[in-house]
Amino acid sequence: MAVLSAKHAIDTALEAARWAPSIHNTQPWIFTTSGEEISLRADPDRKLRASDTSGRELLISCGAALYTLRTAMRCEGWDPVVRILPDPDRPSLLARLRPGTEMAPDESLKTLGREIERRRTHRAGFADVPVPDRLIERLTRAAMEEGARLTPVRSPDAVRVIAALTQAAQGIQAQDRRFSLEVVRWARPPGSGRRDGVPAEGYPRRAARTDPDFPQRDYSWRHDWGSQADQRTETCAGVVALLTTRGDGRQEWIDAGQALQHVLLEAAACGVSAAFHTQALEMDLLREFLRHELCSDEYPQMIMRLGVTSDDKGSVRRSVSEMTM
Hints:
CATH superfamily of the largest domain: NADH Oxidase
CATH class of the largest domain: Alpha Beta
Region (Disordered): 190-219
Distance between the termini: 26 Å
Shape: globular
GO molecular function: oxidoreductase activity
Helix content: 25-40%
InterPro entries: Nitroreductase-like, Nitroreductase/BluB
Protein name: Nitroreductase
Organism: Nonomuraea jabiensis
Number of strands: 8
CATH architecture of the largest domain: 3-Layer(aba) Sandwich
């Protein structure tokens, strides 16, 4: 009976992992199973060639999938045994995990598990509703548990600096045809049957400016795609936060992804959504400026805004069979 239960936990974990967040919803992971072990690999065909030359964002996305696997398995009553980067000669093999000892999931863990499929990325402004300080403290602890640091940016001047860097990066990337074509490659037109990328209803056709303005990716570049939902009443930037790590290698990128998903699930359980801004982190000079001036020399892995929204968009994901080998 225990073997059957472990098999069920593996199947449940794989089903959950497909809902992990990823840059442009590229879903850049491959899962394989052998007996009672899951292997997580990076899918190089889904790497962003223009904006993610180092593969940093790819590994952050895969780290989020790893945390989702772990959480789902724990919700099924198994404490997973995880090995990250288990084989130096196989760089695409990011992790292996298997059910370990049996455990009894507590209610807080079950709450995170319920949010895996419900969590959504937001791509516009937020309502003028404060995010409780108590929740921010919980989110910082969640990131710390995974080996990263989440720092809310409390200084209005610092928030304006981060917004300005985002604006500068977006403006530069908008002039680069490679960046624009890459973004549009992962933007889905209305009625598309694809189960990856960002569906037309998942981003505003013309996003309203937040205060200060954090520009979104131009998924509707040279098209008239996107949601027509009126976002003019939701223009608050929300709480700006930086996710950082002490190092900046493959291990830290995976850690950052696990921390990111832990933070997102904790936030979603309290009705708080996140919007991401990675433009400035895709430009080495701007990322180094952020690191030295606002991150106490830690490496910025994600810029996000946290807030409350009435927007309730759908999402798309590939099936488990499309992600497994």
